[in-house]
Automatic annotation (TrEMBL):
Keywords: Oxidoreductase. This is Short-chain dehydrogenase/reductase SDR. InterPro entries: NAD(P)-bd_dom_sf, Sc_DH/Rdtase_CS, SDR_fam. Pfam families: adh_short_C2 (PF13561).
Amino acid sequence: MTEQRRVVVILGAGGTLGGALVRKLASEPDTDLVLSDVNDAAVKAAAESVAGAGATVETALADVGELEQVEAVVRHAVERFGRLDVLISNAGVLAQNGRIHNLTTADWDRSFRINVMGAVNAVHAAVGPMRKQGSGSIILTASVAGMTAWSHSGPYCVTKAGVIQLAKVAAVEYARDGIRVNAVCPGTFLSGMHKELSEAAVDAIASKHPLGLGSADDLVGAYSYLASDASRWTTGSAIVVDGGYAAP
Ligand SMILES: NC(=O)c1ccc[n+]([C@@H]2O[C@H](COP(=O)([O-])OP(=O)(O)OC[C@H]3O[C@@H](n4cnc5c(N)ncnc54)[C@H](O)[C@@H]3O)[C@@H](O)[C@H]2O)c1
């Protein structure tokens, strides 16, 4: 009998953490990938970065804020590979800096649409095939911002707290279907999100991490664990990988 291959969908695969996740998971045995992002060039570059690594890699464009588009990505995976074992919801945006009275409804709407509804849409779409299989692992990228308070970052902190809570609710709703749902809460690693920050601001953030700033490669082990059978008794958890940021 041939060994069943593992099928992984990554939403928000075109960014810094997405790229590191693509490289990590493509390097693991018997794994095929469907990579998705709203940025076509970025997701194609992520796929090209692992050409020849052994995994079959497909790409699909989607805005995570639109349920039908996320469902189309999942459908693509199931039609192409026959199943869906792991879905990583990794798309996210940082709203512009501002205290609450200086932010607009549009600032909040965008953060809720992409960070919260993007993750809700990911769960909604993934549980269809996973329930039929009776197995699956859903991994939501949250943030330490969802468990600690940052001034001037209300939409980001509030929406990432929502992602952590979504992982818990979905974990209890789908455990009986054999589906595990967990969140990963990274501390700061420099990425596309920080391109506007001054060196002084980066130094200030780094000083709050006892182990210093991380890199996306410091995070992939947690995802690899949650995507594997080694985490078979882990669900509803928020795994913190933050260089000690949230410890004090
Ligand atoms: N960089 C950090 O310090 C940090 C810390 C904690 C959590 N995170 C989270 O990690 C995840 C990845 O972020 P990153 O730091 O690699 O940033 P990034 O900007 O490099 O990547 C974000 C990706 O999300 C995609 N995206 C944005 N809106 C989308 C949409 N509507 N639909 C589909 N894709 C969309 C972008 O195109 C990009 O490829 C995010 O969820 C972010 O909130 C980042």
